[in-house]
């Protein structure tokens, strides 16, 4: 099992960060990798079990299912259902935010666990890590 973990301090409040990152359908609004997204079957983007279907700028599609979303704990957990351009199996990811009380900023952590073939390991780990890092950067920019 491979685990990718990224953390960041964002120069925005927890509330500001959560407003951006809790939107399961909002990736194209703040992430440079993604071009468009929709929630299948017209379900709300915060309904556990909803499936987001999004595309990167090269046209590659990814489908992910929302497993949990907690406004109390400021966390989101999801799994990949289908990602032909990302050779992973059993991919589950979680993002969590916490306040930094001394500065008023927000600490974010995002991780994923998955199986990947050895030949693809380094490339996939880099891509997943970059995805998480850029999400935090984009959320901070969008919220400020």
UniProtKB/TrEMBL annotation:
InterPro entries: Polyketide_cyclase/dehydratase, START-like_dom_sf. This is Polyketide cyclase / dehydrase and lipid transport. It comes from Franzmannia pantelleriensis.
